[in-house]
Amino acid sequence: MPLFINAKRANFDTHCGLDVQYLLSAGIAESYAAAALLDADLREAFHDYLGATPAQCEITEQALEQWRGLQTRVYPVPRVLRSLDEEIEFLLELGEQTLAEAKINEWRATAFKPTPEGWSQWRSWQRCIQNLGGMIEAQQALLAFDTQDWDKASRLRDLTDLHLQNHDLPQALQCIQALQSFHHHFKEWRKLGLGRFIAEQYLAYVLAAKAAHPEASAQVYIWAKALTMGMENMHWNLLEKLIAVHEGYGDQMLATV
User: What is the chain's mean pLDDT, rounded?
Assistant: First the structure.
């Protein structure tokens, strides 16, 4: 009750917006009995809002019941979480990342199955809690299930991005080298968007590795240049990377792409 009273008088908005009936939620007689045990300041506030005695209360029993019925309709029965999956989703909705992570790890230990569905669920939750290691683990596992070139290339492109975010240039390079096995598709894929995304990752690697891994960076630079030559209507992200790489390599031909 003290919390309700203090919230009610915190400011003008809460004074107007918080129903006074909350002070009677235990029942009129019960609430007045509880108010009698409060400090004088809180007890006086309670009486100012509702009246000095139960008989003088401004809210009748009938009005209180009507209010309770309205609250039940507006705020239905609390959500029942029937599974660990539902509990995880609920915690993520609330933004309770730490609690969600603990439940996700519990799910991994008790309910996870190493199927495409299981790994996809793990990847989704790891993305929600921004765990790069977990996302990489899931994508690497899912790569083993991919059978189509497009799916494999898409997965490798995503893995390259994750490794770059994780500052793991050797692993990023391995993914790029694996991507090159699909280079015969790149001309076709450029029209479908995937080629552009692959080119962006190549250029991102070139920019990240130029100082620490100059030979690898130079090789990927050649692949990136071949992939981007002739592209039309480039997206801004790709143009920005091309400009940055041109400035680093001084390639006048690349500047005209």
Answer: 92
How far are the Cα atoms of 62, 66, 73, 75, 181 from residue 70, in angstroms, in the given order?
A: 13, 6, 5, 8, 65
Q: Give the Cα separation of 140 and 146 in Å (integer).
A: 10
User: 85 and 107 in contact (C-beta within 8 Å)?
Assistant: yes
Query: At a CB cut-off of 8 Å and minimum separation 6, what does 145 contact?
Result: 116, 119
CA distance linking residue 144 with residue 12, whole number of Å: 61
| 202/226 Cα distance (integer angstroms) | 11
Q: Which residues have C-beta within 8 Å of that of residue 163, sequence separation ≥ 6?
A: 136, 169, 171, 172, 175
pTM: 0.68
Question: Using CA atoms, how far apart are residues 244 and 221, in angstroms rounded to an integer?
Answer: 12
CB-neighbour burial class of residue 131 (10 A; exposed 0-12, middle 13-18, buried 19+) = middle
Return the pLDDT at 130. Answer: 95
Residue 154 has a pLDDT of 97
Q: What is the CA radius of gyration of the chain?
A: 31
pLDDT in tens, 160-183: 999 999 999 999 999 999 999 999
- Residues 175 and 139 sit within 8 Å (Cβ to Cβ): no
